[in-house]
Write a structure and sequence with these properties.
There is one protein chain. It contains 9 helices and 3 strands. It has about 230 residues and is mainly alpha-helical. A 3-stranded antiparallel sheet has the order 1-3-2. A hairpin with a 3-residue loop joins strand 2 and strand 3. Helix 1 packs across helix 2. It starts with 5 loop residues before the first helix and ends in a 10-residue tail after the last helix.
Length: about 230
Protein backbone atom coordinates (compact mmCIF):
# COMPACT_ATOMS: atom_id res chain seq x y z
CA UNK A 1 0.00 0.00 0.00
CA UNK A 2 1.26 3.51 -0.82
CA UNK A 3 2.72 5.67 1.96
CA UNK A 4 -0.13 8.14 1.52
CA UNK A 5 -2.80 5.46 2.14
CA UNK A 6 -4.33 4.27 5.42
CA UNK A 7 -1.26 2.24 6.39
CA UNK A 8 1.06 5.18 5.75
CA UNK A 9 -1.22 7.53 7.65
CA UNK A 10 -1.24 5.25 10.69
CA UNK A 11 2.53 4.91 10.60
CA UNK A 12 2.82 8.70 10.45
CA UNK A 13 0.44 8.96 13.40
CA UNK A 14 2.51 6.51 15.44
CA UNK A 15 5.74 8.20 14.37
CA UNK A 16 4.54 11.66 15.42
CA UNK A 17 3.18 10.28 18.70
CA UNK A 18 6.47 8.64 19.72
CA UNK A 19 8.72 11.43 18.48
CA UNK A 20 6.68 14.07 20.29
CA UNK A 21 6.94 12.15 23.56
CA UNK A 22 10.69 11.71 23.10
CA UNK A 23 11.22 15.41 22.49
CA UNK A 24 8.95 16.36 25.39
CA UNK A 25 10.86 14.03 27.68
CA UNK A 26 7.89 11.76 28.42
CA UNK A 27 9.98 8.98 26.90
CA UNK A 28 13.38 9.79 28.38
CA UNK A 29 16.75 8.43 27.15
CA UNK A 30 16.87 4.68 27.80
CA UNK A 31 13.07 4.40 28.08
CA UNK A 32 11.81 1.00 26.87
CA UNK A 33 9.38 1.37 23.99
CA UNK A 34 6.69 -1.31 24.25
CA UNK A 35 4.69 -1.87 21.07
CA UNK A 36 1.43 -2.71 22.80
CA UNK A 37 1.58 0.29 25.09
CA UNK A 38 2.31 2.71 22.25
CA UNK A 39 -0.39 1.19 20.06
CA UNK A 40 -2.94 1.84 22.82
CA UNK A 41 -1.73 5.40 23.34
CA UNK A 42 -1.75 6.22 19.62
CA UNK A 43 -4.91 4.20 18.87
CA UNK A 44 -3.27 2.18 16.10
CA UNK A 45 -2.19 -1.44 15.75
CA UNK A 46 1.32 -2.64 16.53
CA UNK A 47 2.26 -2.88 12.84
CA UNK A 48 2.45 0.89 12.17
CA UNK A 49 4.11 1.36 15.57
CA UNK A 50 6.84 -1.09 14.58
CA UNK A 51 7.31 0.75 11.27
CA UNK A 52 7.43 4.09 13.09
CA UNK A 53 10.10 2.83 15.49
CA UNK A 54 12.24 1.63 12.59
CA UNK A 55 11.98 5.06 11.03
CA UNK A 56 12.96 6.67 14.33
CA UNK A 57 15.84 4.23 14.61
CA UNK A 58 17.13 5.38 11.22
CA UNK A 59 16.95 8.98 12.45
CA UNK A 60 18.89 8.20 15.62
CA UNK A 61 16.08 8.59 18.17
CA UNK A 62 15.61 4.88 18.87
CA UNK A 63 17.99 1.96 19.31
CA UNK A 64 17.31 -1.78 19.31
CA UNK A 65 19.16 -3.84 21.90
CA UNK A 66 19.50 -7.62 21.76
CA UNK A 67 16.83 -9.24 23.93
CA UNK A 68 15.71 -5.82 25.18
CA UNK A 69 13.72 -4.46 22.26
CA UNK A 70 13.48 -0.81 21.33
CA UNK A 71 14.60 1.97 23.63
CA UNK A 72 14.98 5.72 23.37
CA UNK A 73 18.55 6.47 22.31
CA UNK A 74 20.99 7.67 24.93
CA UNK A 75 23.58 10.19 23.83
CA UNK A 76 26.97 9.60 25.41
CA UNK A 77 29.64 12.27 25.83
CA UNK A 78 31.44 11.34 22.60
CA UNK A 79 28.22 11.49 20.55
CA UNK A 80 27.26 14.77 22.19
CA UNK A 81 30.64 16.23 21.30
CA UNK A 82 30.37 15.14 17.66
CA UNK A 83 26.81 16.39 17.19
CA UNK A 84 27.54 19.71 18.89
CA UNK A 85 30.48 20.29 16.55
CA UNK A 86 28.24 19.60 13.55
CA UNK A 87 25.60 21.99 14.89
CA UNK A 88 28.24 24.70 15.34
CA UNK A 89 29.35 24.40 11.71
CA UNK A 90 25.80 24.24 10.33
CA UNK A 91 24.55 27.12 12.45
CA UNK A 92 27.50 29.28 11.47
CA UNK A 93 26.83 28.59 7.79
CA UNK A 94 23.07 29.11 8.13
CA UNK A 95 23.52 32.41 9.98
CA UNK A 96 25.92 33.73 7.34
CA UNK A 97 23.68 32.54 4.51
CA UNK A 98 20.62 34.15 6.09
CA UNK A 99 22.30 37.47 6.99
CA UNK A 100 21.60 39.32 3.70
CA UNK A 101 17.91 38.50 4.07
CA UNK A 102 17.50 39.50 7.72
CA UNK A 103 15.28 42.59 7.85
CA UNK A 104 15.66 45.59 10.09
CA UNK A 105 12.51 44.50 11.88
CA UNK A 106 14.02 41.07 12.58
CA UNK A 107 17.18 42.69 13.96
CA UNK A 108 15.05 44.85 16.23
CA UNK A 109 13.28 41.72 17.48
CA UNK A 110 16.66 40.08 18.05
CA UNK A 111 17.72 43.03 20.20
CA UNK A 112 14.55 42.67 22.28
CA UNK A 113 15.21 38.96 22.79
CA UNK A 114 18.78 39.69 23.86
CA UNK A 115 17.57 42.22 26.43
CA UNK A 116 15.13 39.62 27.77
CA UNK A 117 18.05 37.21 28.04
CA UNK A 118 19.87 39.78 30.17
CA UNK A 119 16.92 39.85 32.53
CA UNK A 120 16.88 36.04 32.71
CA UNK A 121 20.57 36.10 33.59
CA UNK A 122 19.93 38.57 36.41
CA UNK A 123 17.16 36.32 37.72
CA UNK A 124 19.31 33.16 37.37
CA UNK A 125 16.63 31.74 35.06
CA UNK A 126 18.74 29.38 32.94
CA UNK A 127 15.77 27.59 31.37
CA UNK A 128 14.18 30.88 30.27
CA UNK A 129 17.57 32.04 29.04
CA UNK A 130 18.00 29.00 26.80
CA UNK A 131 14.45 29.25 25.44
CA UNK A 132 15.11 32.84 24.40
CA UNK A 133 18.49 31.83 22.99
CA UNK A 134 16.77 29.33 20.72
CA UNK A 135 14.31 31.98 19.50
CA UNK A 136 17.18 34.37 18.84
CA UNK A 137 19.01 31.93 16.60
CA UNK A 138 15.83 30.81 14.85
CA UNK A 139 15.24 34.47 14.01
CA UNK A 140 18.70 34.92 12.49
CA UNK A 141 18.84 31.53 10.72
CA UNK A 142 15.23 31.52 9.50
CA UNK A 143 15.76 33.61 6.33
CA UNK A 144 18.45 31.20 5.07
CA UNK A 145 17.59 30.38 1.45
CA UNK A 146 19.31 26.99 1.54
CA UNK A 147 16.48 24.71 2.63
CA UNK A 148 18.74 21.65 2.78
CA UNK A 149 21.10 23.45 5.15
CA UNK A 150 18.20 24.37 7.44
CA UNK A 151 16.89 20.82 7.27
CA UNK A 152 20.25 19.42 8.35
CA UNK A 153 20.59 21.99 11.14
CA UNK A 154 17.11 21.40 12.50
CA UNK A 155 17.62 17.65 12.31
CA UNK A 156 20.78 17.82 14.42
CA UNK A 157 19.14 20.23 16.86
CA UNK A 158 16.23 17.83 17.17
CA UNK A 159 18.55 14.89 17.87
CA UNK A 160 20.22 16.91 20.59
CA UNK A 161 16.86 17.77 22.14
CA UNK A 162 16.20 14.17 23.17
CA UNK A 163 18.40 14.99 26.13
CA UNK A 164 17.08 16.69 29.20
CA UNK A 165 18.07 20.11 30.44
CA UNK A 166 21.73 21.16 30.27
CA UNK A 167 23.85 21.75 33.32
CA UNK A 168 22.34 25.06 34.37
CA UNK A 169 25.47 26.28 36.14
CA UNK A 170 27.40 26.08 32.86
CA UNK A 171 24.70 28.05 31.04
CA UNK A 172 24.68 30.82 33.63
CA UNK A 173 28.46 31.05 33.64
CA UNK A 174 28.42 31.57 29.87
CA UNK A 175 25.37 33.84 29.81
CA UNK A 176 27.28 37.12 29.60
CA UNK A 177 29.43 35.81 26.73
CA UNK A 178 26.33 34.56 24.91
CA UNK A 179 24.70 37.98 25.18
CA UNK A 180 27.87 39.78 24.04
CA UNK A 181 28.15 37.42 21.04
CA UNK A 182 24.55 38.20 20.15
CA UNK A 183 25.22 41.95 20.28
CA UNK A 184 28.18 41.48 17.95
CA UNK A 185 26.16 39.34 15.53
CA UNK A 186 23.39 41.92 15.37
CA UNK A 187 25.92 44.70 14.74
CA UNK A 188 27.77 42.72 12.06
CA UNK A 189 24.61 41.84 10.16
CA UNK A 190 23.36 45.43 10.33
CA UNK A 191 26.62 46.89 9.00
CA UNK A 192 27.75 44.22 6.50
CA UNK A 193 25.49 41.20 6.04
CA UNK A 194 28.05 39.69 3.63
CA UNK A 195 30.93 39.76 6.13
CA UNK A 196 32.78 36.47 6.56
CA UNK A 197 33.09 37.33 10.25
CA UNK A 198 29.40 36.46 10.69
CA UNK A 199 29.95 32.76 10.06
CA UNK A 200 33.11 32.70 12.17
CA UNK A 201 31.42 34.40 15.12
CA UNK A 202 28.25 32.30 14.93
CA UNK A 203 30.28 29.09 14.86
CA UNK A 204 32.60 30.18 17.68
CA UNK A 205 29.55 31.22 19.70
CA UNK A 206 28.13 27.71 19.48
CA UNK A 207 31.50 26.18 20.32
CA UNK A 208 31.59 28.01 23.67
CA UNK A 209 29.12 25.64 25.32
CA UNK A 210 30.93 22.61 23.91
CA UNK A 211 34.25 23.73 25.36
CA UNK A 212 32.59 24.47 28.72
CA UNK A 213 30.95 21.04 28.83
CA UNK A 214 34.27 19.37 27.94
CA UNK A 215 35.97 21.23 30.77
CA UNK A 216 33.22 20.41 33.27
CA UNK A 217 33.16 16.77 32.21
CA UNK A 218 36.94 16.48 32.65
CA UNK A 219 36.69 18.06 36.09
CA UNK A 220 33.88 15.72 37.13
CA UNK A 221 35.83 12.68 35.92
CA UNK A 222 38.93 13.82 37.82
CA UNK A 223 36.88 14.15 40.99
CA UNK A 224 35.09 10.85 40.36
CA UNK A 225 31.77 12.61 39.93
CA UNK A 226 28.90 10.92 38.15
CA UNK A 227 26.81 13.96 37.26
CA UNK A 228 25.50 13.97 33.70
CA UNK A 229 26.92 17.08 32.11
CA UNK A 230 25.68 16.98 28.56
CA UNK A 231 22.33 18.39 27.58
CA UNK A 232 20.27 20.39 25.17
CA UNK A 233 22.17 23.49 24.16
Amino acid sequence: MKAGGPSGAKTALAYNHVKRRILEGTYSPGYRLVLEQISREASVSTVPVREALRRLEAEGYVVYNHNAGARVAELDAASYDAIQQVIAVLEGAATASAAPFVTGEALAQAKVLNEEMRRCRELFDAEGFMELNGKFHDLLCGPCQNERLLELLNGERSRMSILRQPTLGIILRLAEQFIDDHDRLIALIAVDPYSTDIQMLAQAHKQRILEAVRSATATAQTKGGKEELVGQV
